Amino acid sequence: MSKREQIWMHQMARAEDTELIDSFEEFYRSYYRNEIGELAQRYPSEGKSLYVDWQDLYRFDPDMADDFRNKPQQLREYAEEALRLYDLPVDVSLGQAHVRLYGLPDPTDIREIRADHRGMLIAVQGIVRKATDVRPKITTAAFECQRCGTLTRIPQEGGEFQEPHECQGCERQGPFHINYDQSEFIDAQKLRIQESPEGLRGGETPQNIDVNIEDDITGEVTPGDHVRATGVLKLEQQGNDREKSAMFDVYMEGLSIEIEDEEFEEMDITEADKKEIVELSNEPEIYEKIEGAIAPSIYGYEVEKRAMAFQLFAGVTKHLPDESRTRGDIHVLLIGDPGTGKSQLLQYIDNIAPRSVFTSGKGASSAGLTAAAVRDDFGEGQQWTLEAGALVLADRGIAAVDELDKMRSEDQSAMHQALEQQSISISKAGINATLKSRCALLGAANPTYGRFDQYEPIGEQIDLEPPLISRFDLIFTVTDQPDESRDAELAEHILQTNYAGELNTHRTETTTSNYTREEVESVTDEVAPTIEPGLLRKYVAYAKRNCYPTMTEDAKAAIQDFYVNLRSQGAGDDAPVPVTARKLEALVRLAEASARVRLSDTVDEADARRAIDIAEYCLKDIGMDPETGELDADVVETGTSKSQRDRIKSIKSLISQIEEEYDEGAPVDVVIERAEEEAMDASKAEHEIDKLKQKGEVYEPQTDHLRTT
Ligand code: ADP
Ligand code: MG
After folding, report:
1. Is it the case that residue 452 has pLDDT exceeding 90?
2. How far is CA 287 from CA 180, 355, 612, in A?
3. Pocket test for ligand 1, best of 304, 333, 344, 495 (most atoms within 8 A of CB)
4. Residue 138 and residue 675: Cα distance in Å, rounded?
5. What is the mean pLDDT of residues 554-575?
6. Is 5 exposed, middle or buried (0-12, 13-18, 19+ CB in 10 A)?
7. 96-124 burial, b if ≥16 CB within 10 A, otherwise e?
8. Other beta carbons within 10 Å of 130
9. CB 3.0–4.6 Å: which of 313, 387, 428, 463 could bond 405 by disulfide?
């Protein structure tokens, strides 16, 4: 190219620049006059950005809008230049103002991001999983020469810190120090956005993308927020300085982050779906049908399945005039012997819930079940990162947590708040945040010693703190005891399920199958779900979105009678307290969920009955004092039954009596002897002594001798 040609090209380019800048100015005049006026008033302390809806730009000039998508960096410079040149009503300069685009149609699925998107403007939707704290980042570093005092300014772009080769004054290689007053800084934050759980088909691992944001949009979102981020897709080489890799990572330079509407649901429910749902909800056998749609391959567990169905539909979240809130979510716990199908049930719920997270108490991520502030390699250097755990990611859905008893101790304490207030507060290393955890928990746990001992209170047999246990609306215990007729049916069911699976696989995998389709279907029909999972998912989403039933007088009366009756069992002087008010709220939630199944506006007496049936079944399982057969709330709420508490008291008083008689403390065999005289079982007495020792209420001054503290 000749010199003249070069100059001509350059001038052409300049002309194009000016033309585009003019177009932006014209666009502002016709679409954003008021917004710019307001920005000028607020700038810079209360506002630094002009938010431009891509759709407006498209209406103004489709080509320009498309250009913005394909060459966002260049176009953004023009747009910002135009803003600086804009005739303002007040005397300010919008020197550092940003133009932030949003409203891009058709967001890109995070898992669909490809190399072709490089350099383009895209929008992604998802949930914020991690966010670093906001830290200043240097954009222009002023290096002051220690020899001559000259300032050498080096713009800092990209990840690595750039230092001057030589001083601009004396041309020597420093030494330099950075003059902070003369340098420029900007607030910076890094977010990790993960695909929303409802976009995933059961069991898929969610994908994520990191988004870097700067200046006025930092510090606005919290992990757990559902957002739509618009930005430019960038590549970053993997590997380190010495060994560069041919592989690249992608990330986004975020232009704008919008917090999505809380009611955001990705699921599409068509008119045809709606018709089918309404028809289903009117069927007289709908409750049985829904039970049959939950884990049909798992035999038995009718009540548990119904409870899980109600958990899917959920009770109504209540907002009171004093701004307090009562959760509608139903927390369910399955405790039981190994190999009884608990994990399978959880996985199934994860499959059909419209929004759910499946995890194990041990936790795959550093955030565990609740949330954590960690210092890892996500942020630059020493930055702290706040990461959302399973209960936050499952916000407005179900968290299915297997092996809940193995959860980490950090989670234990945060769990109480997470389950009752449905939020998690974290305050560590200068990070103070409250994350939302409005989800229902479906937990599974094994007894402490692997298997259940039916004669011990539940509270003693799981490694969960009693206050946490009491947060569950329903607790089911699952024991695996040989029972000939049940075992035969279970075996038949499992064999049948497997056979159906075999036939199905056989027919699809081999071309010359001897089995006809009719044969396969007749077998598979028996173990097929009564409602197809895709439809059930929509049914649940539809009911939760549209149905907010209220109690009828009859329903209220039924629940009240049940409650008062139970309580009256505890009216005597020495009788245990049978149930606490917590159970009452659980009944209300269950009854509401039952009404939602019918898409009913009212909670009828029949709904209350269904709730009572489930609650009664659970109470018999767990709230019963195994020694007396009486219902006892303390078994659940404190982990110790009344008869046990009485026993502990009498053992302690025995020890203190006997220790008076012996110099070296009360001999264990004497204590047990006296206990037996008081009609206490020797093994139980030993057990209580061990407990007292563990708790430090009794100690051994000498082997087999006891003293109270
Ligand atoms: P858990 O989590 O309770 O230890 P799993 O869910 O891992 O048990 O179940 C172990 C296996 O036993 C699974 O393959 C499951 O399908 C089977 N199983 C256990 N109970 C049943 C049941 N009631 N009906 C059908 N299969 C069952
Ligand atoms: Mg398991």
Report:
1. no
2. 69, 22, 15
3. 344
4. 75
5. 77
6. exposed
7. ebbbbbbbbeeebebeebeeebeeebbbb
8. 24
9. 463
Bridge partner list, 433: 426
Give CA–CA dist 469/456, Å, rounded: 16
Q: Does residue 72 have a pLDDT over 90?
A: yes
Atom of ligand 1 nearest to the CA of 345: 6
Strands 325-326 and 318-319, sheet pairing: antiparallel
Ligand 1 atom closest to the CA of 344, numbered from 1? 6
Closest CA to 71 of 14, 4, 8, 20: 20
Predicted TM-score (pTM) of the model is 0.77
The closest residue, in CA terms, to atom 10 on ligand 1 is 339
**What was the pLDDT predicted at 417?**
87
> Best mutation site among 308, 406, 494, 526 for ligand 1, i.e. most ligand atoms within 8 A of its Cβ?
494
At residue 174 the predicted structure's pLDDT band, cuts being 50, 70 and 90, is confident
Q: Are the beta carbons of 442 and 401 closer than 8 angstroms?
A: yes
Q: Which domains does the chain have, with CATH numbers?
A: 3-102 (3.30.1640.10), 110-259 (2.40.50.140), 329-480 (3.40.50.300), 642-708 (1.10.10)
Ligand 1, CB within 6 Å, residue ranges: 298-300, 338-344, 490, 493-494
Give SS3 for 500: helix
- Spatial neighbors of 297 by CB under 8 A, at least 6 apart, are 344, 497, 527
In angstroms, the CA 518 to CA 524 distance is 10
Structure tokens given for 294 = 């939950």
Q: Nearest ligand, CA of residue 334? A: 1
Ligand 1 centroid – CA 74 distance (Å):
59
